[in-house]
Design brief:
Helix content is 48%, strand content 10%. It is an alpha/beta fold. Bound molecules: zinc ion (ZN).
Length: 406
């Protein structure tokens, strides 16, 4: 009785198979990654690579970022951070004049030059509207931030000039404390600080950044500076490249109460990929390899005393052998930090802040920007929805940038 079989048995059996398939079907991670706007809060490419006159429009043998690998990794909106070596502040360069601001302008010039030379591939995005237009046109939208408030040379007028030229965030301090703000490193390691947190002028800087649409970046700052900034800002803040202190107790990482405060402020924490910030055992394991690393560090230091991080990374890869390779934490530890923050305060307040081209060790499988889709894959495997993943990949960061434009 074939008819009866079809009506009584076959259709329910078919539904039994199809309904779970439809309910639990996941978008292929590669498609999800491609369709999302993927943003990254921080890399050091402009200082480490463009500054050396390297042409990143072609694939480079070393480093973590160039245009071909940016495309492969589906990174639509990388923020190039202008990190200013504190040596430019004073006599470190043998010159009397502070050259910090000059350095930022040179790095902005370098990004403008890159965009002008590769108009079909990239653009320099100074607003979220511009970024979205570039991305819709299949291009990479490069945006810029400054790492280290010493860049403004204690001048609000200089901050204004940076904003006019397209700077869209500023990390209040790098590892060095300023006349108006103390750093995470100093607050953790020094007892002799004359003050902690933001001075009156420091608070003025934060308010001026709010006025100018320059996002306040609290990565690198001291705990006291963090709370002063959170209480002063009228707009959502970012942590452009920081992880969770609960998983790795490093002064560069954020404690639970800080993560909750950023979420309350409707800001975003962009998770750093550096091995030493995600793996609490990394520094101890690395100490054992210190003699070899010291040798390579010397080789990677230019005659003028400048340490070349990219060269160091390359030497580590070439000469480090299995000893150094085995130090790299598994990719799952990086995902743990993203997931920790997402579970603590919700997936609306976390994103990516790779620190590519600025760190000596990345997690396994994450050799460079081309491997970013593995993060999407891992988050899917842990059961996060397409909607949550899309927010983590870039939606959250764009939301914060937009909120700062108003
Ligand atoms: Zn940094």
């Amino acid at each position: 009785m074939p008819r009866q079989f079809y009506s009584c048995h076959f259709i329910p059996a078919l539904m039994f198979i199809l309904i779970p398939l439809v309910l639990f079907a996941q978008t292929d991670y590669r498609i999800l990654h491609r369709s999302a706007i993927v943003a990254d809060g921080h890399n050091d490419t402009v200082g480490r690579r463009l500054d050396e006159n390297l042409d990143i429009s072609k694939r480079l043998a070393d480093g973590n970022i160039d245009l071909p690998r940016l495309k492969e990794g589906g990174l639509d909106l990388p923020f190039f951070g202008a990190w200013i070596d504190p040596k430019y502040m004073t006599s470190g360069t043998g010159k009397d004049k502070d050259q910090s601001a000059e350095r930022v302008h040179a790095m902005i010039d370098a990004v403008e030059k890159l965009a002008a030379a590769n108009p079909n591939d990239v653009g320099f995005a100074k607003s979220t509207g511009e970024a979205e237009r570039l991305i819709a046109g299949g291009k990479i939208a490069i945006a810029m931030g400054i790492e280290g408030g010493h860049a403004i040379e204690n001048s609000l007028a200089e901050l204004e000039r940076f904003a006019q030229r397209g700077i869209r965030y500023m990390t209040l301090t790098w590892n060095n404390s300023l006349d108006w703000a103390t750093s995470g490193k100093d607050e953790a390691e020094r007892q002799d600080l004359k003050f902690r947190g933001l001075t009156k002028f420091g608070k003025q800087v934060v308010r001026k950044m709010n006025d100018l649409g320059v996002m306040v970046d609290i990565s690198h700052v001291g705990v006291q500076t963090f709370w002063d900034a959170i209480r002063t800002t009228r707009k959502p803040v970012i942590a452009s490249h920081s992880c969770a202190y609960a998983l790795c107790a490093h002064f560069r990482n954020l404690r639970d109460d800080q993560i909750k405060a950023v979420a309350k402020n409707r800001g975003v924490i962009l998770v750093n990929f550096y091995a030493g910030f995600i793996d609490s055992t990394y520094d101890r394991k690395r100490a054992k390899s210190e003699p070899l690393l010291e040798k390579l560090r010397k080789q990677a230091t230019d005659p003028d005393g400048t340490f070349n991080q990219v060269k160091f990374g390359q030497l580590v890869q070439e000469q480090g052998g299995n000893e150094i390779k085995s130090l790299r934490p598994p990719l799952s530890l990086l995902i743990d930090h993203i997931e920790y923050i997402a579970k603590l305060v919700g997936p609306e307040y976390v994103g990516l802040g790779s620190d590519f081209d600025g760190v000596s060790a990345l997690p396994q499988e994450m050799d460079d920007v081309s491997q970013l889709p593995l993060i999407t894959k891992s988050l899917q495997e842990r059961g996060w929805s397409d909607e949550a993943i899309t927010k983590i990949l870039g939606g959250n960061f764009l939301r914060v940038w937009k909120a700062n434009e108003r």
